[in-house]
Amino acid sequence: RNSDFHSISSRLADSMQTAFYEGEGFCRIYYEKNKKFQYKEFSNRFELDGLEFEEPSLDFFSFNNPYGACRRCEGYGSVIGIDPDLVIPDKNLSVFEGAVAPWKGDKMGQWKDRMIMASIKFDFPVHRQYYLLTDEEKELLWTGNEHFDGLNTFFKEVEQNAYKIQYRVMLSRYRGKTICPECRGSRLRSETNFVKIDNKTITDIVLMSVDQALDFFNKIKLNKYDAQVAKRIILEITNRLQVLSDVGLTYLSLNRRSNTLSGGESQRINLATSLGSSLVGSIYILDEPSIGLHPRDTERLIEVLKKLRDIGNTVIVVEHDETIMRAADHIIDIGPAAGTHGGEVVFEGSFNEMINSSDSLTAQYLTKKLSIPIPSFRRNWKEYVEVRSAEENNLKNIDVKIPLNVMTLITGVSGSGKTTLIKGILYPAMKKILGGHSDATGKHAGIFGDYKQISDVEMIDQNPIGRSSRSNPVTYIKAFDDIRTLYSSQKLAKMRNYKPGYFSFNVEGGRCEQCQGEGVIKVEMQFMADIYLKCEHCEGSRYKAETKDVKFNGKDISELLIMTVADALEFFRSVKQGSLEKRILAKLQVLDDVGLSYVQLGQSSNTLSGGEAQRIKLAYYLSKGANAEKLLFIFDEPTTGLHFHDINKLFTALSALIKMGHSVIIIEHNMDLIKCADWVIDLGPDGGSGGGEVVFEGTPEDLVKKKKSYTAQYLDL
User: Fold this and answer.
1) I want to staple 519 with a disulfide (CB 3.0 to 4.6 A). Which of 315, 343, 542, 714 is the partner?
2) pLDDT tens for residues 179-193?
3) Count of other CB atoms within 10 angstroms of residue 101
């Protein structure tokens, strides 16, 4: 009120500071004007239009930090809820025909009856197949209206009665991982969407693919001040995105979970990390970096490896891919065969020198002296499974017919939508239709065709067959049971009353108790990685001395377990063939048939590669032989880690599955296996947003005529 402002300016400033502090960033200043009191409000709070915003920080935009993670799903992007695909597994049925699985039986069926009786009041098409319903009609089935209670109300009532065992069992049948309704899978709290850069929120950006994000940051529009502040940051972002693009990962979304990446994708991301660091004078060792890459993308990978070499690094690549071999400066060929028949340097020199080598099996395939023959005929098919209106990720509302009782290969460049179609839609949808459980199914209208001809669907992927050192190839294919029975039937074992369980290293009895059948002693180190030392008591054999007294044809059980599959086959063929020996031989033979002749019988499963684990799973099903159940097998790149010579064996093994009456679907980039297919479905034409279309469906002979297909350009018939 004092007109002499200068005399009180310091007191006024102090009062305003106090007001801001006490008002937590807000103060109101009253002043007199024309003998009336007026006021002005001042605020340094982060608010606008009545909304108070969180002040941005690094943690605010991180789903790994509680401050930035979505409150509902805690940064996971999914929650345990009612899975719509389990509630309505068969989308070919109408509500009247029983599409809603839990609305069955005398009591629960009353919910369906009430809905059908009331449907005439709001014109709901109860006789129309579920997949043909509009989005509004599907939503109404869940939410209900004044005439009937929907599925949401139904499950709320079930949850209220969860103290009864039958209701808990019912809930467990229909629960599954569903996308978080609050963050829609972005994993970030909703308040982060109030912050925008060039009209894009962080959610918009993390849902982009690498190529889309790279394009956005290259063309980003900022004012002069923001551009100056962000100059260095944007340079770092574009450099790192460019490296991901260079290694063929343009199709991956920035929000992609690492546990959903294939082995090849993970390896190329690690490679991109090294490239981004610009190290020189280092040795890079890559184990089959071409895994999961289409031949077109392999050429881009070679350019990246050459860049590493040119800036002063040494690059060592373990590889079977012909294109990478041709680009190598120096080749070392190990062989001549696998297991005990290998381990020698067959050739060392340049590629041109190698193809003239008569000792190298690799050279004979490269010069076409040996080759994988094209089948003399393609199997015909009548029955099929059809996926309609697939729209998940980059799939563009496609319909795909997948033949049964033949070998179907799903091809296309990296990121064209192969995995989304087969592993993201077909597999979980079929699993749920056939009464099983699986992860959330990708967006599609439904599964049609002759799927009732299939008893079950099996995903033969590259996940480990066991994470324990106690699991091994012969335990997985059930051959170890027969081996233990064989040793317990020996004369000395009978005299000592040793049962088959005595020869197991998993239970007390004949195993070494010092290491409990592990063969190694674990020494825990507090601040370093644990150390594993060979057990001094059993010398790594896993068994007691008295157990090893029992021998079969001069070999105790520990000596048998360190044999390779090829050596074991030779060993059992040299003895008198009883029923047990024949069973063991038959089971070991399938391991050899899938190209695992070099693997030791007792080799720990946690030392096997993804490709080896996948082929052991294949061997397990081959060992079961033909039966009444007709299965649909899905393989994800079974040629991973295979030499040309072994791909021929793999094709024979896959053909054996079809002869048993099963159906085989293979996601693959290997041209030698593609040319052997009965039917090829090629997706593309490109990866990411440029893919998701059906480029071709038919035989390999017709595929090579398709100029639009990148696969056709590399297929040689």
Assistant:
1) 542
2) 887 887 888 988 888
3) 16
State the amino acid at position 100 in one-letter form.
Answer: V
User: What is the rounded average pLDDT of the residues 647-670?
Assistant: 91
**Cα torsion 129, 135, 137, 142: sign:** positive
Give the other-Cβ count within 10 Å of 664's Cβ: 24
pTM recorded for the entire structure: 0.77
Q: 264: pLDDT confidence band, cut at 50, 70 and 90?
A: low
Q: In 3D, which of 422, 388, 433, 426 has the Cα closest to residue 93?
A: 433
Contact 401, 409 (CB under 8 A): no
- Burial degree of 480 (CB within 10 A; 0-12, 13-18, 19+): buried
More confident position, 179 or 480: 480
Average pLDDT over residues 461-476: 82
What integer is the mean pLDDT of 250-257?
84
Distance between CA atoms of residues 609 and 597, nearest Å = 15
Q: Judge residue 339's burial from the number of C-beta atoms within 10 Å of its C-beta, 0-12 exposed, 13-18 middle, 19 or more buried.
A: middle
Q: Which domains does the chain have, with CATH numbers?
A: 5-45 (no CATH), 78-179 (1.10.8.280), 279-366 (3.40.50.300), 384-464+644-714 (3.40.50.300), 473-607 (1.20.1580.10)
Question: Is the distance from CB of 447 to CB of 430 less than 8 angstroms?
Answer: yes
Q: How many residues does the chain have?
A: 717
What stretches of 59-147 adopt beta strand conformation (E)? 78-82
Q: Residue 159: which H helix or E strand, with range?
A: helix 151-160
pLDDT 10s digits, 142-182: 999 999 999 999 999 999 998 999 889 988 888 887 788 78
- Is 43 in a helix, a strand, or coil? strand
Cα distance from N-terminal residue to C-terminal residue, the chain: 96
